[in-house]
Design goal:
The chain contains 8 helices and 7 strands; from the N terminus they run E-E-H-H-E-H-E-H-H-E-H-E-H-E-H. The protein is of the alpha/beta class. Strands 5-4-3-6-7 form a 5-stranded parallel beta sheet, with helices on both faces. A hairpin with a 7-residue loop joins strand 1 (about 10-15) and strand 2. Helix 1 (about 45-60) crosses helix 2 (about 85-90), helix 4 packs antiparallel against helix 5 (about 160-170) and helix 7 (about 215-230) packs parallel to helix 8. The longest helix is centred in the middle third of the chain and has 21 residues, at about 135-155. It is globular and about 50 Å long.
């Protein structure tokens, strides 16, 4: 997803569509105020709450996709023509269900998108690893604090909440520094967190507002590919073969503001070079 500019209050409940009873609760601490041009994970940018809402709606609507066609989606909305959440649900349904999932958030910042993804995905899948990563140690501390406060909020929210909170707290969760473009850092992260997993790859990589300039595109996409692949990005041949596990993990990213034209071109160019297919 891209070009999402939709402000949503980050704290509280994220509910599914009117046809679903899915509710996700989060409690986030962040710096107050408008981040403006400041690129900092300590602020809540519009794309993170928007991605959170899309994840909840997509996961709540996956069961409805069975009756969908190429012309209509499965959300049962009268005027929906493959809306964002339903389009996302089609990708989420490709995630393996016969084994536990491994998920990583890049540039986690306050951890909002990751906390919502953890709750929505754990309702459908077992999760063997959920990693929050950021280059900023302060942001990682904030993510961990928000993880703990969210567990407390979930515990207080309803009669069934203790079970949900236990499920979340049982997921192996890590808060790790990671610099994009650092292949050794990626290998170290995978060795530490996925050492018991065959074909040690992450099934889902996600993030919001990660691309803030042209120069960050290549290191970001190489890192995402290395997390999803058994073959390092630098070792991919000209055909792009051998880059993915058979289950084809994917990188889900949202953005608050449109990219500059040169950034769009760089994204397309690097995706083509690395053998990644971009869906907007």
């Amino acid at each position: 997803m891209a070009h999402i500019n939709d402000h949503v209050v980050p704290n509280g409940d994220y509910s599914g569509s009117k046809h679903s009873d899915t509710v996700v609760r989060v409690h986030i601490t962040a710096v107050d105020g408008d981040p403006g041009a400041l690129q900092s994970g300590h602020y809540i940018w519009p794309a993170a709450p928007a991605l959170a809402r899309h994840l909840v709606n997509a996961c709540s609507g996956m069961n409805q996709l069975a009756g969908a066609s190429k012309e209509t989606c499965g959300c049962m909305e009268k005027f929906c023509h493959w809306c964002g959440p339903c389009h996302l649900a089609r990708f989420l349904k490709r995630l393996p269900v016969d084994r536990p999932l491994r998920v990583v958030e890049l540039g986690a910042g306050c951890g909002l998108a990751g906390l919502v993804a953890m709750q929505t995905l754990s309702a459908r899948h077992d999760l063997s690893c959920f990693a929050f990563t950021d280059h900023d140690p302060g942001a990682l501390c904030l993510s961990e604090e928000n993880y703990n406060s969210t567990l407390q909020e979930v515990m207080k929210s309803s009669t069934g909440a203790p079970t949900v909170a236990r499920n979340i707290s049982s997921i192996p969760t890590a808060f790790k520094p990671l610099k994009w473009g650092d292949q050794n850092g990626v290998l170290g992260l995978k060795r530490e967190l996925l050492r018991h997993c065959p074909n040690a790859v992450f099934d889902l990589v996600l993030g919001s507002d990660l691309i803030y300039c042209h120069d960050i595109v290549r290191p970001l996409l190489c890192t995402a590919l290395d997390l999803m692949s058994t073959v390092p990005a630098l070792d991919i041949d000209d055909t792009g073969k051998g880059r993915r596990s058979p289950e084809s993990p994917f990188f889900l990213m949202s953005q608050s503001f449109p990219y500059e034209q040169d950034t769009e071109q760089e994204i397309d160019s690097v995706c083509n070079e690395l053998g990644l297919r971009r869906n907007v």
